[in-house]
Specification:
66% of the residues lie in helices and 7% in strands. With 376 residues, the protein is of the alpha/beta class. It is elongated and about 95 Å long.
Amino acid sequence: MARDKGDRDQEMHTLIRGAFAIFKRDFRKFLSNPFVIIMTLFMPIMYLIIFGNAMGGTITGIPLGVVQEDPYVQQTPLYLAGTDILETFHQEDKPALFQVTAFSDETSAQHALDQRQIKAYVVFPSNLSPGREVRLYIDSSEYIVPTLIQSGVQSSLATLGIANPFQVYNIYGTINYIQFFGVGVIVMAIFMTTMMGGGIALIRDREMGIVEGYLVTPVKRSSIIIGTIASGTVRAFLAGFIILVVDVLIAGVVIRTVESFILVVFVLLLICIGITSLVVALSSRFSSQQEYASSVAFLNLLFFMTSGAFYPVLGMPYWLVWLTVINPEYYAIDALRSIILRGQGIGIIAIDLLAITIFTVIAIILGITTYRRTIE
């Protein structure tokens, strides 16, 4: 009995010693990488700051147009009173809900709505007879914003105590949140496929000596770079295109014309080339998969949370809105929503295409430069 008890004690002692040795080795390995330690502590703080401010913020300053119904000789009391109350309408302890712009005619207001300069416009009747309706035209492709506009305008008109009927026109029909969000997921799929799959694969190839193996073959260095970027672009495009098909089948989004489909494909290819080139540049600067994954997790948070994929940019604080200006995902999602949800063409998304092109060119230059240094 005493011998059995001694054997069990010895086994337990050996087990604890072995576990402690493994623990000490792994913990020393963790402490030996300050970058990973910093990112481990930094990420939850950034999630709190960025995610907490990017989602569910109070939406104010919605661009709203007002116009008096054609033809008219002079501005009616209803138009003047309605404009005044819309300019000052606000939620409790919040800034004004609307940023009101007056238009001289309905054609100008409709053009501004098509160009996305305003989110909606109100048409006031030229006479005050009870049969004349107040009309509200809303860009219904956004999330939450159309509901806020309708309720705000209705509340403002109710304050005036008018008897005129109120009619709402959603110019892009009824768009559900899954359709709004589904377009954003297309770009998210491209980013995740490239960042997590392509970047880690490039680092692993270097660790296994595959990249060095290329250098002893007749393949030119420029061919290695072009082939790497091209392969990543195709993978990213396939991921985005698959999610697009899923959106069509499950979310119910509709691509209305062949021209719209070609534009969607073009936007996807352009952003895929840019993100793949950025991944090549980033992965060339890291020697460890762990460090790279930590950095990518932060970039994914920064890019996707400020892209407007989850929640309208209007609901973000001013300092966070500025990040969208340099966020390529924001422009890609905005262009895809314009094409898919609004049925708009290249004239409307020209600014988005320009921004994506600038990002792609810069990313290609960075990718080629950094990867060339890696293989040399």
